[in-house]
């Protein structure tokens, strides 16, 4: 791999695959030649690893969003029927929504129409309304 220690290869691969950095950004951060990174990328099959990583994150993201939607629908049906909502459900949805927010900040994989439809279901107003109805208070 050249004269650079393996540490740089592993770190450069992580930056490319997981952090989704460009080769230019990696070269700048690690003070490496772009040509070295191009060779490492080819030898290490980084592009395929990046695609698999993005797909796995996308699938997790979709599953987390679906869980949030189901939980919100469940909470809303309890509110509509006047039943008392288990506090655990409220805490669960708050946690899931904070994780979705973190994921959205970290990666922008979704297309704009998909994001808009998700945001309509998981809007802050919807959640605040549920919390207000259940607890009589804002978040």
Spell out the helices and strands N to C. HHHHHHH
Number of helices: 7
Radius of gyration: 21 Å
Number of strand segments: 0
Number of domains: 2
> Taking all residues together, what is the mean pLDDT?
77
What is the distance, rounded to the nearest whole angstrom, between the alpha carbons of the first and last residues?
53 Å
Structural class: mainly alpha
Overall spatial form: elongated
Low-confidence stretches: 109-121
Largest sheet: none
Keywords:
139 residues, mainly alpha, elongated
Describe the protein.
With 139 residues, the chain is an all-alpha fold. The protein has seven helices and no strands. It has helices at 6-17, 23-30, 34-44, 46-81, 87-106, 112-121, 124-135. The N and C termini lie far apart (53 Å).
List the helices and strands and how they pair.
Elements: H1 6-17, H2 23-30, H3 34-44, H4 46-81, H5 87-106, H6 112-121, H7 124-135
Helix pairs in contact: 1-2, 4-5, 4-7
Short description:
Helices cover 78% and strands 0% of the residues. With 139 residues, it is mainly alpha-helical.
